[in-house]
Amino acid sequence: MFIRRRMNRISMAALGVAVTLTAIAGCSAEPAAPPATSGSGSGSGSDAPVETVDLVVGVAASMSSLDLLLGIEQGFFEEEGLNVTTTPAATGAAGVTALINGEIQVALGGLSGTITAASQGIPVAFVSGGIADTESEEGSWYGTLVEEGSGIESFADLEGKTVAVNSLNCCWDFWTREAINADGGDGSKVQLVQLPFAQQAQALADGQVDAITTQQPFAKQAELQGFVSIGDPAAIAYDDPENGNTNYFMAKQFVEENPGVVERWRAALQKSADYANENPDAVRQAAIDIVELDPELVEAAPVPNFVVDIDRNAIEKELSWLVDYGVIQNAPEIDDIIIP
Hints:
Layout: H1 2-9, H2 12-15, E1 36-38, E2 51-59, H3 66-74, H4 76-79, E3 82-88, H5 93-100, E4 106-110, H6 111-119, E5 124-132, E6 142-146, E7 162-165, H7 171-182, E8 191-194, H8 197-205, E9 211-215, H9 218-224, E10 228-231, H10 233-238, E11 246-251, H11 252-257, H12 261-278, H13 280-289, H14 295-300, E12 305-306, H15 312-324
Parallel strand pairs: 2-3, 2-4, 7-8, 7-9
Antiparallel strand pairs: 1-2, 4-11, 5-11, 5-12, 6-9, 6-10
Helix pairs in contact: 3-12, 6-15
């Protein structure tokens, strides 16, 4: 069965490691192309046989890559001549390092880590979307939550308060500050502290922080504990409720050494995203069996909005924030960090 095969490939204990997207280290070697073998994939619509390309994809313990795992099980990547396996991998700096060292060929993560790497001359680029923000009956994918009755009713009220975020100097930091600015407050006057998603609600309950900026299913879990959302900071910061801020990326050398691999990847991922978006119950079951989330929480929380298209507007804004907040000095050209 699907679940058993996937669990053999993914060590959930290793996947649980949280990595801060604030540094790129140990990136000195270019990745070697994995061995290619003869195959009979469709080659993105072509009837001619194509050479099979082996891809190791680094994924973390979250719902964000469940369309990929479902797509592998459904055979969509095999149809495109791609032999895809997954391995435990954290996002951001660790994903970039694994790509450049040739340990993996594809990584999934937020925008900041890849842009920061490119600004340092590390040859990586976005190849497809991953998930996008969404509005649904169950809630938005991202949220900032506070204690009910705290007097904090809007983002402007967070000025001078303490807010827990998963990582500093990246999207969580930027979204919170930009949402405060957009609401008429001063985002420079909020104190941000770094806490893993799983620890944020308890810190809020204990009064250690005044608010938390988080994602699903942690946002829904916090709501079930009685905390209330004051809005989706990502949607406000990007001025787009369906912003695409989580992408797949590859090393440029691997792309150059494997012509057509990006097109085949996108074709297979599109089939996977379509299947997952059309079968939310399958996504929820995978979240329970693979990510090992609580079934009641999974039922209450929204499922991801899986996408393949790259959100250029989101990348442009993330790049500008990285510069404005002093995280990077040398801004890469946007066309240099997106594979056509």
